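User: Good morning. I'm curious how glutathione would be positioned relative to this chain. Could you predict the structure with it bound?
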Amino acid sequence: MAPIGKIYSYPNNPRTFKILIAAEYNNLEVEVAEFEFGKDNKDPKFLENFHHEKVPAFESADGDLHINECGAIAYYVSSCSEKTQLLGKDQKETAKVLSYILFAENEIIPHANTWINPILGITQYNKAAHNQSTEGLKKSLKVLENILLKKTYLVGERVTLADISVATALYLPFKLVLDAKFREGYKNLTRWYKTVVNQPAFKKVLGEVILVDVAHEYTPPKKDKPKKETKAREVSEEKSDKKKEEAPDDLEEEEAKPAPKPKSKLDSLPPSKLNLEEWKRFYSNNNTRPDAINWFWEHYDPEGYSIWRVDYKYNSELKKVFMSSNLIGGFFNRLERARKYAFGSLVVLGEDNKNEIAGYFVIRGQEIPEEVTDAADFESYEFKKVDHADPKERSCFEDYIAWDGHLDGKTFADGKIFK
Ligand SMILES: N[C@@H](CCC(=O)N[C@@H](CS)C(=O)NCC(=O)O)C(=O)O
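Assistant: Good morning! Here's the predicted structure, ligand included:
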């Protein structure tokens, strides 16, 4: 079946999930375009068609319709099938469905983003805003909890775009912060959520959905808290919790100030014969086999550097190859502080809907430094130190930086170099 249109977005965007799930229910195909978020959405050509840089954006197959706003796109996709049940059985139900689309947009997503984005390292943490958003979200969830006391689905007797919109808005909250303890107070909502995300159309887009056991919390990066200041604040916070309650904004303003860039501990390591900048230049300008590889082993200094095997922890959730590749790109962007101290190659192996991310990093020192561990998505990757003297490890490392043929017996699909 020919796609009814194309979506521009980034991988695993819950706003896009909403559209893709609606398409699944209607047995329609929507193409997910190859798209580099941050670059392609700023391209003047993109902006000729769309109102602004925000994604998801949708273009119909006949090129006649260009729209932003995930709710509108999902509504259009839902209405593209005459037999659709996603919009309710009559105008009154359609109005109810619309009210939940807007409820998700206005009463769930903004609170959820303020709560979660600092945890993901996307925005800065602000305690007053955090408290407001957790309270705001709880209020909205209580509304749903009461509605779902007597209902299986939000509108009518079957899944509609109302359920899809609200469930996808709650995808990240349930995955990251609405933990087992929290869910005890929201039993109807949790039952409903589990019911809908286990429907085949949801599963096809979301895969196996996991609800978090213990909530992730924002932990301030060490670099944001110069030691002296932290100590002083800890003492004054201990002394007067009351004062803190009365003046959260002042405290938070202080917390939000960017701290001076700390000098890296790695700068005080003994000098090394491996000059990483030189290696990166040599690797870029010469054939990898045999020239760059020979150069590397001739200059490698196992005391000043370490080699790490890196595997993505959630390979089973990966979908299109280009999406996996974008994930690697995002991780590399967030490793900016490590650029001076690390070189890496991460590749996508396999094919669409069956691929994995793996690779190697060469890192200054013998531990994984904070320049790497501070990256918001570091926890999504497993880093294992390897013995550079082991011939098997050596050869595998070489394969992963040469990108030729099969790696670990799997087909190379795409790759990115951190340099
Ligand atoms: N109301 C819009 C919001 C879209 C939105 O905020 N998209 C974010 C990513 S999830 C974005 O594109 N941000 C980029 C920017 O603000 O320039 C919708 O529901 O589609």
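The beta strands are 5-8, 30-32, 57-60, 66-68, 305-312, 342-351, 354-364, 381-386, 406-407, 410-418. Residues 91-116 form the longest helix (26 residues).
Let me know if you'd like a different ligand tried.
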